[in-house]
Amino acid sequence: MKLYRLDDIKTKKLLTYNVIGVVKNFNFTSLKEEVKPLALYLRKNYGSMALRLTTQHIPGILSQIKNKWKAMVPAQALNFSFMDEDFNKQYEAEERTGKISVTFSVLAILIACLGLFGLVTYAAEQRIKEIGIRKVLGANIPNIINMLSKDFVKLVFISIVIATPAAWLLMNKWLQDFAYRINISWWLFAVAGTVALLIALVTVSIQAIKAAVANPVKSLRTE
Q: The whole model's pTM is what?
């Protein structure tokens, strides 16, 4: 089998190559692009070279390469790069977006927890006498915690229902930029919702337990 390549458009001279092997398709660009046809052929190239190095002795090997280069072509500067770093540069924007998203997500969770803690504190303060009466009438600590928590858990559940479709649309739109991408599974949103509920329950329970174990005599003393 022979492969023909146009060497000069003006003269329309064709170069002939013998096909010595076929490799499996691989992506030689970013994952945002589909795999395109690629032909690899041998020819002289005086502009660059590729070296395979062991990761254990990179500084020493680079020093030897620089010394050899200065001895052979002292007037020419040595420019080099690592292939893995060149590959990673294709996804710098995605990595930066991921770090920013994680940072703002953590800040949003902390602010939400502080706000939720403040709301629970205010609600417990407003219902301090009700809690004292319930404890005198026989309510136990789990009953008090459930009374203070259920309203906030409902609000968190409603927010999850609203946020899930919006998150799916944003993630799906972002993934459209990639020619090869994963499908968004439903369990990711289920896990995220469960974690959000657990964080809300822990935040609410801290103040709810504090209000539930308080001495009812103090809250009913003014009655």
A: 0.62
